[in-house]
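Replying to the earlier thread about multi-chain prediction with a worked example.

Input:
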Amino acid sequence: MSDETLPQPQEPPAAPAGPYVYDYAASPQRQIVLPKTVPLPSLITFLAEQKAAAEADEAKWLKQLADFEVAKAKAEAEGKDAPKPPVRAVPRKDDNDLKTPWPQEAKDADLLHLQDCLGGKVEEIFEQAGELTCQVSKESILEALLLCRQDAELNYEMLADQTATHYPAATGFAFSVVYHLTSISRRKRLRLRILVPEGFVPESACAVYPSANWMEREIYDMLGIRFANHPDMTRILCPEDWEGHPLRKDYPTVGLGQRDISFREDRGGRLELIAMQKAGQLGINLKQPKAE
Amino acid sequence: MFKNEEMEINLGPQHPSTHGVLRVKLRLDGETITHCRPMIGYLHRGVEKICENQTFFQGQVWTDRMDYCSAVANNLGWAEANEKLFGITVPRRAQYIRTMLNEFNRLASHLIWLATHALDIGAMTVFLYAFREREDILDMNEAFCGSRLTTTAFRIGGLREDLPPGFEKLVTKFLAKFPSCLEEYENLLSENRIWKKRTVGVAKLSAEDAIALGVTGPVLRAAGVPYDIRKAFPYAAYAEMDFEVPTKTEADTYARYLVRMEEMRQSARIIQQCMDGMPEGPVMAKLPKILRAEVNEVYHATEAPKGEIGYYLVGEKGSGNPYRFHVRAPGFINLQALPKMAEGGLIADIVAAIGTLDIVLGEIDR
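Result:
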């Protein structure tokens, strides 16, 4: 092996001058792969995708048939044997117990009742995996919650859970906020959903369901969505002076500060340089005396 | 000489009765609490963020470490949420074993609640008795899955292994002696004058307030609302089990104690039925090695010993990781009710209020 193929020793990167403050935005360790898709369950999207896939499949099959006709005519003209006719591919069937629950048209009385009462404010209703989902416009969430709480036919007494999801790849919105309502008397569950763009301040659910208090604080803490008319919009899990909102998809999974550089990754001797520099600032001589 | 002003004190974060690192800011007028504000987050580890960056299978070990007193119940909710997301039907035998282990876990969790709650209030003896029986349950956990506390008991689609040989003997032995053990605890506490003085009428929470604040579990049932997810939305094998949902209407600490004691009796009944009706067959569904999701979202709630534990999962097409992993921890929501229960009461009773909520800070902070 010649010397040229060997990896050349590289100059270690220069350590930052002065007191060591980690620039977390410019960190080489900040490897964030932002999601490229928008996995927002929806019957409308699902049907559109199904239709597009079926059309693509049909077009492929027609092209195969046309190709076959051309090949057949060519073979006849040349006096050769006719080629085999094409066989339409059947989707592969896996031998396992998975039965993916696809979105289905809403048939449940609660969803239809919600649509009747709210009219155009309902953006979408569908069922999936036995769960009811109703997406309403972001301005009318409080109205929808009030209806669910007070309507005698709906009577959802408890807000069991409220949370949000970040969709950085979406256009027109950045977050979905979901409300999981439970009706104890009727033994039913319902999911309300709103789509919120960055910076939008949806109405707080605390006036209707006091249990939303801490859940909305958690959403603000973790995803940075503020809620209007909330009694106490402060962070709950992270310290008050925390930077950023951890459950956003653009938030790094490596730690802030010095934990960003792991010793395993420290190939360039960067940590040692930093330690030397810090020691120098403190007036400590860490350098080994050279052997005479 | 006596100043007429309110005093602010901190309970915790390192207080032995707060079951973890909970800090409660209290404002006192004499000995009466006028304002109470729980401050949490000292144990925040970012479980949701971690699980979003791991495969569907890897999330389970984190659910063990949320509520470490009821790891099996957390595992069950997690496994069933994933099964709902992928549309997996679990074999019947696996359902029965899951139900049985879940009820054992309820016993263990209630025993640790009884032990520490009594210890907080000042009854030392019960602590030792309750831990004796809990030890037997942990031994059974060890026999089943090799670990005692952080069990990682289930898999998506069923169980990794069937019950070990000789497990039935352990169960029969335990069930034979457990009713007498319960009587032993009740003899120590139920008619104990000091216990009753510390618990009757303390930390009341009415049914309306409990529902408005989202409180679930024994705290809600002690207020007279018979809401138990095992009955209301049956999962695992609970639809086939015959058991009662104990309720009380007093809504105080003593009523919650009675409800939990009765729940332990019902759990023992369910375990007996699981053992008697245990079906034969496989314990694992047929699954591909790597699970790839479709676009889907599920919220699946189960009845953990402390209340409703819900998992909210969002699947991304073709991805092996959950796009969003959210846990509705029962302790997190139940702790919201602490100011309502403690304000207006005496400072000595806040220890009873924290104990009766049965919180574990590991799941509150996640």
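The radius of gyration of chain B is 21 Å.

Feel free to reuse this layout for your own posts.
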